[in-house]
Every structure is written in structure tokens, then in C-alpha cells.
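Chain X:
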Amino acid sequence: MRVTLTLSDCPPFDLFTRNEQKAIVQNILAILKTSKGSCPGLRGYGIDPEILHKPIPVAKAAYSVSISKQLAEYVPEATLISLEFEDDPNHPEILNPILEVMIP
């Protein structure tokens, strides 16, 4: 199943879901919303906040590499198909990722 994910339309988390696809989507969104180093016991989990202090083209490239590595390590059942960034003319300094992933 192909799923498009954005942080702007993130649904509420259901910690006790029995739906495997929903759990995978929640895991991916949790990675996107977590700063690397902030999770006790899993300091490598999440997106490196230093990425956000780089010039936009560099930040986009670094973010792409980071999310690819995070998905490979923490959500191996999901396959990243594409990653784009939505541009907000009012806030060009903010990265708004749009991920397309394939989940079983």
C-alpha cells in the first residue's frame, strides 16, 4: 500500500492500535517529529536538529539522507519511494517534508 505522509496532517497517535499499517505510519511520523538525541535509550532515533541550521538546499539533502537511514534502521518494513518538500512562501526557512512510502 502506498501512503503519502506530511507532518501538517498528522493524525493523533493510537498507542494500542492492532492495525499493522497504522502502526507503521505512526512509527514513521514519530521519527519525523523526534529530535535526534532526545529519546532516552535510543539516542540515534529521530532527525538531527543541526540539519535545520544549514542553508535550505543543504538541509534538504541532509534531511533526505537522515530520513532514509532512520527508516532503514527503525522501520525496515517501509520503503521510501519519494521525498519532496512543500514550500511555504510565508516561511521559506521551514522544511515541510512530504514522504511517499510503500508499506506491506
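Chain Y:
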Amino acid sequence: MNTSLLKKLTVATLLAGTLLTAQAALKVGDTLPDLTSFSLVGPLPAALKGKIVIVDFWASWCLPCAKSFPVLDELQKKYGDRLVVLAVNVDEQASNMDSFLKKHAVSFTVVRDAGQKLVAVVEPATMPTSFILDGTDKVRFLHNGFHGEDTRKEYISEIESLLK
């Protein structure tokens, strides 16, 4: 095989992989996949339909995650049963998640994606990544990272817009 053809095939393969990856990631306008099909560790909230849902992907080693948890907890308490916050931990070791939660106790639901199956489908860009869903499980807003008060204000504005 000549070098030119090999280079072209390599570039084509890389481009195809990039396009497939970009299309596989959960984005605004998509519907959240059925969470029961991913063998998440921990009980899922009973009912998500008809509620605003924040699905937050996080890890114990993530410093912005530690800062986002009090805000997510505040939102859960503020909006009560109109909002469901679901935090999906991506740590390989359950003990890391448990240690984090001892330091950062919360009132919202936390599950662990032990097999990394949901993460493989959703492909969060960074830790944390939050998806805000409307009452039909459609992603309406997406947050890559947590930027303190700016993100808090965006969450509130977005939740309020969905509650109207």
C-alpha cells in the first residue's frame, strides 16, 4: 500500500471516529435514555416524568463537583417535588464516592455508574456535566463544568423557564 493512500485512510478513519463520537454524545434536544437499562448502583427516583430533572455527572476527585453539590442541594430544597436532582457518580471505586458523600451530605439522589455504561452513551465533556431536562425527559439545557454563582443563576433561570 502506498504511503499517500495510507495517510488518506488514516485521516478518513479519524474523521469518521470524531463524527461518530460527536453524534453519540447527549446534547440539547435529545431525550435522556432509559436509566433503568444501565445497571446503575443505587435506587433511582420513583418518578421523573412531568418533573424538571437535573442529571449531574460527577467524580470524587473533581474540585468543581464539591462546589456544585451545595448549590444542587439548595435547588432540590427550593423547588421540592417539582425538581429531581439525580447525581451520577463515575468513580471506579465505591469507597471514593462514599468518602466524598460523607464530607458533602446531600438531600438529592446519588447513584453510581459502576460499569461506565451510561457515561459511554452520554459522554459528559467534563466533570461535572449537568443536563437539565423538561417534564418529557428532553435535554433543554447543558452545563459543562461548574462556575460558581454564574452557574447557580443559570440553573435558577433555566428551571424557572421550564416551570412556566
